[in-house]
Design goal:
The protein is an all-alpha fold. It has 12 helices and no strands. The chain starts with 6 loop residues before the first helix and ends in a 7-residue tail after the last helix.
Length: 280
């Protein structure tokens, strides 16, 4: 039997979505963990996907000038070869890099909503990807600005984005780590990561909207008002999180987030091992 979401759950999870969406700590993983610890159940993959529409709206507002410039340049470049500069190329990079997650997300949508949300898996992935962050920081040259982005870079980061379908990985963490391995500057890797997430997350949220009202599998049933409020809260907090993160990564390593992930992962393993919370 599907549980009904309360207003407290909607508000808390919306705020948590806003805080964690852009930090490389996995918003979907945190919503899954918080739902189980605080409310004794899973809010569901559909609620997570819909609340992400709020944080993607924050990206659209924060990067509005960049997005308008890229879209305009892309259309101009289609008509005139002489205007095919960096923004035109970035438009194509985002399009091509979104294809892998679109295909894999559709093919594995049932697994993502069920077995993929097992908390043992979330805990393991949280810890493992802390190691990926360390390797990216250790071996990435971090000397290439966004102006040097290539189609190869975009495709590799697009492939890395597919890993974010697993709660605990982190979309920004996976794509930014891939960018660091490719030699991109930390801020450049995160900026492209945010742009790359727009089509994938928006499509996922809109696709999941009907199921959020009437979950067909695991998940809590939310009202339209609850989804709206949770999404609005995620938007406001997410906007502030973007500004903070871009300033932070300019001068700080991703290893700070990696250490946090290890701590959360170990605590989660302890709760699961003692039977304090359920993995499913």
């Amino acid at each position: 039997m599907t549980d009904t979401m309360t207003w407290t759950q909607a508000i808390v999870l919306g705020a948590l979505q806003g805080i964690t969406e852009f930090l490389p700590v996995s918003s979907s993983g945190h919503l899954r963990i918080a739902s189980e610890i605080m409310f004794g159940g899973d809010a569901g993959a559909s609620f997570t996907a819909v609340s992400q529409l709020g944080t993607e709206a924050a990206v659209l507002v924060y990067f509005a000038r960049d997005i308008v410039r890229i879209v305009t340049a892309w259309f101009r470049g289609l008509r005139n070869r002489d205007e095919r500069g960096l923004d035109y190329r970035i438009g194509w990079y985002v399009i091509f890099a979104t294809i892998p997650i679109g295909i894999i997300g559709y093919v594995l949508k049932d697994q993502i909503r069920t077995t993929g949300r097992n908390l043992w898996l979330v805990a393991t992935v949280l810890i493992l990807f802390a190691g990926v962050f360390w390797l990216a920081e250790r071996y990435g040259r971090k000397n290439r600005p966004l102006e040097q982005l290539t189609l190869r870079d975009g495709l590799v980061m697009g492939a890395a984005q597919c890993l974010a379908l697993i709660p605990g990985v982190s979309r920004s963490g996976a794509t930014a780590s891939a960018g660091l391995f490719l030699g991109l500057e930390r801020e450049a890797a995160f900026r492209f990561s945010f742009l790359l997430a727009i089509p994938a997350v928006t499509a996922s949220g809109l696709f999941s909207l009907p199921d959020a009202f009437h979950p067909s599998g695991d998940g809590m049933e939310a009202t339209g008002a609850q989804l709206f409020v949770a999404t609005a809260i995620a938007f406001v907090i997410g906007y502030a999180a973007i500004a903070w993160l871009l300033r932070f990564v300019s001068n700080h390593s991703m290893n700070w987030f990696g250490a946090y992930r290890v701590i959360v992962g170990l605590i989660l393993i302890g709760l699961l091992a003692t039977g304090t919370i359920s993995a499913t």
